[in-house]
Amino acid sequence: MNSEVLFGTSVVVLLLTASAGVTGAGAIPSPPGSNDGELLGRVGRYVQHLEDHLAVVVGDERYQQDVWDRGAHTASRAIRSEMLFMSLSRQDVWLSVRNVLSVDGRRIADSKGRLDRILISPGLDYLSQLRLLKAESARFDIGHVWRTTGDPTLVFRFLLPGNQTRFTFGQSHPERIEGIDVVKLPFSEHERPTAIDFDGRDALSHGAVWIRPDDGTVVRTSLQVTTPGSVDVSVTVTFRPDGRFALWVPRRMEESYSDGRMLTRCLATYSNFRRFETSGRIIEQ
Fold first, then answer.
1. Which entry of 82, 98, 122, 152 is 20 to 30 Å from 33 by CA?
2. For the chain, what is the domain count?
3. What are φ and ψ of residue 191, in 5° steps?
């Protein structure tokens, strides 16, 4: 599983890759605090359950992008897409793929039904085709950032049991989000090579997750990336329950990319989640 971001005209690459050690296997680690150790166990099992049940799910995404240059608003764009969430645990694959349908109200040719055509084509290497579609969709982005890491499930990969040992988890403390009792659990990456690569160099991740302590449900994630260059990256995602799947699904994703001069801010909202069968047919539930 991978995604990448190219910053500026110098073509600097920010790459999330499983080859650096981000996998889905392994045992739950035992951090110093027993209570937080139990919490990590619950959230690890929750993410594994989510991975199994978000096997092939698609939702509608509305994606607003705005760019500022030295504080002056210079551009905006509205993108409407299908967002595919695909998990194949046996192949250690977890993909979030954006199929852009329209840009600023203008329909993209051949976009309708493209996911279906990829998934049902016999003999087609659909994973390669989906990764190609993921990269192609980034061409519609504006500003100084060309990205494919706008992925609302990205932090979930850090929480898989086999990946938790790559991170240091701080002391949890209780909070309340929209009437829901949660605990905030900070994390910081300590293992190299890092999960995210910046132009061939390590880029450490840190942030926090907000978890329902009784069952490990993830209500919010926040990710910041410390790059060797001058780009600050921040991604915050909130989740909501979906009765069709008895799961919490992405509701809102807020992104910020700044090099000190130019700032790109993005807001994505999600709705109408439905499941794809392996045949490509949508199951209405």
1. 152
2. 1
3. -95, 140
Neighbours of 263 (CB within 10 A): 20
| The two structure tokens encoding residue 232 | 């600050």
Residues with Cβ within 8 Å of 260's Cβ and at least 6 positions away in sequence, in order, are 230
Do 70 and 87 form a contact (C-beta atoms < 8 A)?
no
Residues 138 and 82: beta-carbon distance below 8 Å = no
Query: Are the C-beta atoms of residues 135 and 149 closer than 8 Å to each other?
Result: no
* Helix segments in the chain, DSSP class H: 34-53, 114-120, 126-137, 154-159
Is pLDDT at 6 greater than 80 in this prediction? no
d(CA 79, CA 81): 6
User: Are the C-beta atoms of 84 and 90 separated by less than 8 Å?
Assistant: no
Tens of pLDDT, residue by residue over 148-162, are 668 999 999 999 999
Q: For the segment 47-66, what is each residue's pLDDT rounded down to a tens digit?
A: 999 888 777 889 999 999 99
Tens of pLDDT, residue by residue over 171-185, are 999 999 999 999 999
Q: Which residues contact 73 (CB under 8 A, 6 or more apart)?
A: 66, 67
- State the Cα–Cα distance between residues 56 and 52, nearest whole angstrom: 9
- The partner residues of 205 in beta bridges, in order of sequence, read 225
Q: Which residue has the higher pLDDT, 236 or 22?
A: 236
What six digits make up the tokens of 8?
């500026």
The parent domain of residue 206 ranges over 2-283
Torsion of CA 42, 43, 49, 55, to 10 degrees: -170
Q: Copy the structure tokens of residue 198.
A: 């910046």
DSSP 284: P
Exposure of 99 by Cβ count < 10 A (0-12 exposed, 13-18 middle, 19+ buried)? buried
* Model pLDDT, residue 148: 62
The CA R_g of the chain, rounded to the nearest whole Å, is 18
CB atoms closer than 10 angstroms to residue 176: 9
